[in-house]
Amino acid sequence: MRETSTSESCIQFSGVTKSWGETEVLHGIDLALPSETVTALVGESGSGKSTLLQIANGLLRPDRGEVSVLGSPIDYHNLPELRRRMGFAVQGGGLFPHMTVFDNISLVARLEGWSEAKLSERVEELFALFSLQGELADRYPHELSGGQQQRVSLSRSIMLAPALLLLDEPFSALDPITRASIHEDFNALRSATNSTVLVTHDMAEAVRLADYLVVLREGRVMQEGDVGSVRSAPTDEYVSHLFEVLA
To answer: Are strands 164-168 and 86-90 parallel, antiparallel or unpaired?
Structure first.
């Protein structure tokens, strides 16, 4: 496995264990995710990848172990400060249905006290980044296509120009054509943040978008490394099987 120090990693998990009731879903995870890289956490449903991401965001606390994000241990008494430094986008967009597109995107920055002029300038930048038309600003989520909703969600996640972006199955609910279109825009997303962690069960998506792979199975890390090295030298049949769809 690749050795990555805390100073070189965007997220460090040390002995992280998490259970739901009597079921242990993460088993002593030791993992350092590299900075300035798109990392994909991949594995079948129930492998623990979304749980790991929610622990990184402070939404869940591990039962045992420690987590450092952007070089510092998570301070559970000051989670707003942590979340100012990271963006988070989920499957389906997670947009507030009673708020316009503009208000959805700008919500966090408005809470931070940004001026109206600064809000408008930043939203305009994001519309350009994700090829969103200006007239969408006053629409509500139900008036948007699935692809537009996801682009709005991604815009909101990077409104504050975070150092770290967490994406939890953000494209899985989209039809194949729309998903392919948003994949084409992913380079724009990469340019807007230093480090990205993508949770996906789709190995083709992981290979297309990520530089670094972490393969999880039943709450354990099966293999990690650069995409090319994992693909060319899978450590077991499970990892090899995940790549069969690409053959």
So the answer is: parallel
Of 49, 34, 139, which Cα lies nearest the Cα of 95? 139
Q: What residues are paired with 17 via a beta bridge?
A: 64
- 108: Cβ contacts below 8 Å, ≥ 6 apart: 156, 159, 160
Vertex 173: Cα angle to 193 and 143 (nearest 5) = 85
Query: How many Cα atoms sit within 13 Å of 67 on the Cβ side?
Result: 24
| 30/36 Cα distance (integer angstroms) | 20
pLDDT digits (tens, 9 = 90+) for 190-242: 777 789 999 998 898 999 999 999 999 999 999 999 999 999 999 999 999 98
DSSP state at residue 246 = G
How far is Cα 218 from Cα 169, in angstroms, rounded to an integer?
A: 18
Contact 63, 40 (CB under 8 A): no
User: Sign of torsion, CA 37 224 218 174?
Assistant: positive
Q: What residues have CB less than 8 Å from 211, skipping those under 6 apart?
A: 37, 38, 39, 226, 227
- Other beta carbons less than 10 A from residue 121's beta carbon: 11
